[in-house]
Amino acid sequence: MAESKVRLQKFMADNGVASRRKSEELISSGKVRVNGVVASIGDKVDPKRDKVTVSGKKITVDSENIYIMLHKPRGFITTMNDERDRNCVAQLVSDVKKRVYPIGRLDRESEGLLLLTNDGELANAITHPKKHVPKTYRVTVRPSVTESQITALSTGIEIDGRVTMPSEVHVLEKQEGRVVLSITIYEGRNRQIRKMCEALSLEVARLKRVSVGPVKLGMLAQGKYRYLTDDEVRKLKIAAGIDNKSKRTK
């Protein structure tokens, strides 16, 4: 019944283990077994028949999805576990009854809106490079910023041999020695905004994500989380180019 099978990393992501990329890392490290046999990249499973375990713990099929927004503080890494015992976002959502994982990342020194879910389809759609889901950041730079630098940020800057997509850049505040910018990007490359600013000799003093697609951080307190509303989930799925048929809790 090959048509009923799905790729192992998709099965893992759909059931809240981790993102597809992280799931592939778990498979490659030998931590995943299918019916007792160590799995390999490329394996497929039948969700109704096969037993899949990660580090000895069985994955349970869960048809109910949850969606959370967290106000990540500085100093926390975007992972659900850390072998070096650093502060990670899992500590901030430890009382969530279902297993969730972050959609995308915020680096350790960045703060703001981080979405977490057990909906692998949505997580993959939002992070997929072809979807171009907008993400807006409030960025404080030093010492100042010129019009030519704003133009460069807006039109694209070469990072790691590839030019970034056009961005929306607006000056929010301008004081002596610091400028606050609103920057909206349409791709999710690693540390993208920091690298863009670094290329222009701009020091990033503070970087805070304030929205992902139509979902805004608002007045959510730092270190706290809340469940997304049905309307927020619906709009987020529209922005990611998928339908809104999934069941959900909260």
Please give a structural write-up:
The chain is of the alpha+beta class and 250 residues long. Helix content is 21%, strand content 30%. The protein has six helices and 19 strands. Strands 8, 9, 10, 11, 14, 15, 16, 17 and 18 form a nine-stranded mixed sheet that branches. A four-stranded antiparallel sheet has the order 3-2-5-6. A hairpin with a 2-residue loop joins β12 and β13. The radius of gyration is 20 Å and the shape is elongated. It starts with 5 loop residues before the first strand and ends with a strand.
Q: Percentage of helical residues?
A: 10-25%
SSE arrangement, N to C: EHHEEEEEEEEEHEHEEEEHEEEHE
Per the principal axes of the C-alpha atoms, what is the gross shape? elongated
Instruction: Give the amount of beta strand, in percent.
Output: 25-35%
Task: Indicate the low-confidence ranges by residue numbers.
Answer: none
Major β-sheet profile? 9 strands, mixed
User: What number is the mean pLDDT?
Assistant: 91
- Number of E-type strands: 19
Distance between the termini: 35 Å
Q: Helical stretch count?
A: 6
